[in-house]
Amino acid sequence: MDAFLVSTAIVALAEMGDKTQLLSLVLAARFRKPWPIVLGILVATLVNHALAGAVGAWVTQMVGPDAMRWILGLSFIAMAVWMLIPDKLDDDGTSQHSRWGVFGTTLIAFFLAEMGDKTQIATVMLAAQYSGAYVWVVAGTTFGMMLANAPVVWLGDKLVKKVPIRMVHLVSAVIFLVLGLLALFAPMLKDLA
């Protein structure tokens, strides 16, 4: 259950102000049909994060525990730095896909926008950290994405204007930094105790 709660919190925070959250806002403004947009986000996220979680689980089996500790620790610290770099949406990503309807456009645009995104990388790392809890990690990261994106679809820019995105990014960066430091130094602290 820890894997679910931690995954939900990390991804919900990491998603604030992310390009996929901005994409949610663009899709909501363009189509004004929240249910197919939210369903498209859900399906795209489930598929994307299931693949990312599988990669994380596979990496855990292929790499020894000491190497994995260093990979995870440094990756979480890199995510902390990445959280401090604001995202922007280059274009709405929907014009070439609108022939597929609201759901199809959302599914394709959201899936592609998530490729290599912070939350996808976080899913890989969380699945590696919580080996054996793959389903809980994917469920948590997907729920975190929905917590961050569904309100944007329904409430649009009213919500985005009231959320201090910079503060959310700073809090997220601190959480990733702490996770990274714990991954790197927890075994050493146990030896000292």
From TrEMBL:
Domain of life where this protein originates: Bacteria
Topology versus the membrane: Multi-pass membrane protein
Keywords: Membrane, Transmembrane, Transmembrane helix
Transmembrane segments: 38-60, 67-85, 97-113, 133-155, 167-189
GO CC annotations on file: membrane
Keyword match Calcium: no
GO molecular function: metal ion transmembrane transporter activity
Annotated compartments: Membrane
UniProt-listed InterPro entries: GDT1-like
Family, similarity comment: Belongs to the GDT1 family.
Name this protein carries in UniProt: GDT1 family protein
